[in-house]
Write a structure and sequence with these properties.
binds magnesium ion, binds 5'-deoxyadenosine, binds cobalamin, homotrimer
Chain lengths: 188, 188, 188
């Protein structure tokens, strides 16, 4: 197996259905999804280190999300018309169900919370914010090209899920989230 | 509590005082501050894991910084004129004092050092570089719109503080920073 | 030692040979290399935590890479003509040798793998994707200015090395990489 092909040495690269500059917003978009996915891998690794048992349900959810982030990535990598999209509204609905389930585990808050807590929770907040960056890049792509609308909605809801997962993780370890003091009540 | 409102599904979102595209430089700026803040949360989590006692003073400083990064974030989120800014020159002065205090703990160096050392120090170097990214995004925002000048200075000085904190953390664990060999003396 | 000079407070900063805006693509490029380097520092820290012995060869390789990322960074920081470049084709060749050696340790795969596994492997996947971001920024710089071609090739190959390192790390801990299910065979 040879993974380096030297074909990217001139700053151009292959997407599905075309050849573009690595500076292209499309490459930036799925590249950021790939980065987000790596942080999800790290969150899983930390859950396993900490106590696989305690987090087995969340590890399962996150592993499925890793698979789906590849679906998102290939939807963003494909030049329109080249093949059917993979992410559908059902994927987004399922994320919403998970958000609801996770938030039930944690006491409700009215104010912003400091991103942190246990190593697992802090890594979930990192996932949250990197996924939000990926969403912003997908939005930038939208302004330049047609993309799978559901893939973008998926990223939007996924960052909410990471917020919920971080709160659930802290709740499971009996760690209270610290509120942002100088803010007003922002959550309803 | 329902955190997903589905209002961001079309790629637009709310800032304080307006509705903008998620591709907007303002959203990019405070979104990056949020990301930096999550890495600060991770640095704190690692300090607690390693030995809360040994780092209690730094945990306190970093927790205050997490609060202040929300102040920075809301200053960047607010469309000019909508409300008074939160970050002032005094915040920046305090950062400078902390920089001085932390650097005193570590042997002085003349050359660049490799970002790393203990898990705590390496995570502080990550904070340093992500805060620098946030500063660059705040500068980009400045070129497009008026922002709180002190918030940008705050980010600038904060990355210096993370450099100092990383060095202090390694010093506390008796780890010597490795110098960049092929460079010249850059620090005075 | 005073590291804050307050000279960057107005959003301008020094590169080697000029003064530019912090919004400049050049600053973004070496700033991202600095960020990538910090994640490399974290990968090393995790290897040491886990079992320095088991990873001593990889720690050595990664420490050399940290040195070389400063070479890359200074090549990107220098305005053309100001001084000779540091990174050469030989550096890239050596990366390719390391890729080959690392991939031999892991069973070959045909499909994409989920970025993750052990804490060491997941941090190497983070390095992989942040280095790819640095490569994209170097490509953007190329479109605006002349840069050291070999520094860009170095970044390209370095992300392949992190893929190989992540696979080797999992193999050493007898962790099987999970394949992306809904994809086709992509590796030859
Ligand atoms: C997109 C992409 C990525 C994305 C994945 C996006 C996502 N899903 O998230 C990201 C950025 C993650 C990625 C990462 C990597 N990638 Co990549 N990637 C690609 C790329 C461009 C497309 C792969 C893909 O998904 N193809 C989709 C399939 C379905 O497309 P296809 O096989 O061409 O199928 C088409 C046709 O055959 C037809 N078709 C398919 N099936 C059928 C069936 C029928 C019946 C019909 C009629 C037609 C048909 O339709 C398809 C669409 O046109 C390929 C290059 C390329 N153009 O193939 C490189 C490629 C696979 N990647 C490569 C590499 C090296 C990597 C990395 C190791 C790079 C790195 N250093 O990080 C990593 C590995 C990541 C991992 N975790 O395993 C190399 C592999 C080299 C090799 N040894 O063979 C490739 C070949 C690029 C290259 N260098 O030339 N990659
Ligand atoms: C900026 C912002 C962020 C920033 C915070 C910036 C920072 N400080 O760093 C960031 C990016 C971090 C963020 C993150 C999140 N956010 Co947010 N955020 C907002 C936003 C746009 C503003 C919140 C804010 O600070 N308001 C400032 C207060 C002071 O403004 P205000 O309440 O409108 O007050 C105004 C007036 O009332 C008046 N006023 C106030 N007080 C007084 C007093 C007097 C006397 C007078 C006369 C006037 C007056 O002046 C103010 C300015 O106009 C709101 C949407 C919105 N427009 O409210 C969402 C919002 C609060 N966020 C939301 C969500 C979901 C999140 C996240 C969970 C998203 C995610 N998946 O990551 C995270 C949670 C982060 C956390 N750690 O807790 C949701 C909450 C939904 C809900 N359940 O209610 C909102 C409502 C957006 C939405 N979807 O509609 N967010
Ligand atoms: C590029 C750069 C960086 C890059 C490094 C790039 C890389 N290699 O990856 C990055 C982004 C990583 C960085 C980070 C930091 N940096 Co810096 N950095 C610089 C910068 C712009 C250039 C440094 C450099 O490499 N110079 C290269 C040398 C060779 O250049 P030179 O000494 O000017 O040499 C020239 C001439 O003298 C001549 N020359 C040299 N040798 C010879 C020999 C002969 C015979 C002849 C004829 C000519 C000659 O040619 C050279 C080219 O013109 C300087 C500012 C500046 N312009 O010097 C700041 C500077 C060194 N950084 C500074 C700081 C504070 C930092 C950080 C702490 C910031 C932070 N908060 O993160 C970190 C520390 C990082 C670490 N790990 O140690 C400060 C130091 C302040 C101080 N106390 O003195 C400086 C001075 C900037 C400032 N604020 O004014 N930095
Ligand atoms: C909670 C708040 O976060 C902001 N917001 C919404 N989407 C993103 C994103 N992808 N990245 C950063 N910030 C975002 C909006 O201002 C929203 O109101
Ligand atoms: C130490 C050096 O780092 C660069 N520099 C200054 N501010 C930033 C930033 N926010 N991000 C990246 N690099 C920066 C300048 O080149 C400075 O001289
Ligand atoms: C494996 C695939 O990854 C994409 N690719 C190549 N270089 C980069 C980069 N620096 N960042 C993100 N994606 C990249 C191309 O589409 C390539 O085919
Ligand atoms: Mg390549
Ligand atoms: Mg939302
Ligand atoms: Mg400075």
């Amino acid at each position: 197996m040879k993974i380096y092909t030297r074909r990217g040495d001139e700053g151009q690269t292959a997407v599905i259905g075309a050849r573009v500059s690595k500076d292209d917003v499309r490459v930036e978009a799925y590249g950021t999804v790939d980065e987000a996915n790596s942080f999800v891998g790290d969150a899983i690794a930390r859950m396993r280190e900490r106590d696989g048992q305690k987090y087995s349900d969340l590890i399962e959810v996150l592993t499925q999300i890793q698979q789906e982030l590849f679906d998102v990535g290939s939807d963003l990598a494909v030049v329109k018309g080249k093949r059917p999209y993979k992410i559908t509204a059902e994927h987004v609905d399922r994320l919403e169900e998970w958000v609801d389930r996770c938030l039930q585990e944690a006491p409700s808050v009215k104010k912003f919370i400091l991103p942190g807590g246990t190593p697992v929770a802090s890594s979930l907040h990192i996932c949250r914010t990197v996924v939000r960056r990926a969403e912003r890049r997908a939005v930038t792509l939208t302004l330049n090209d047609e993309i799978n609308h559901e893939a973008r909605r998926y990223l939007n809801r996924l960052s909410d899920l990471f917020f919920a997962l971080a709160r659930a993780a802290n709740a499971r370890e009996k760690i209270e989230d610290i509120q942002y003091e100088r803010g007003r009540e922002v959550f309803r």
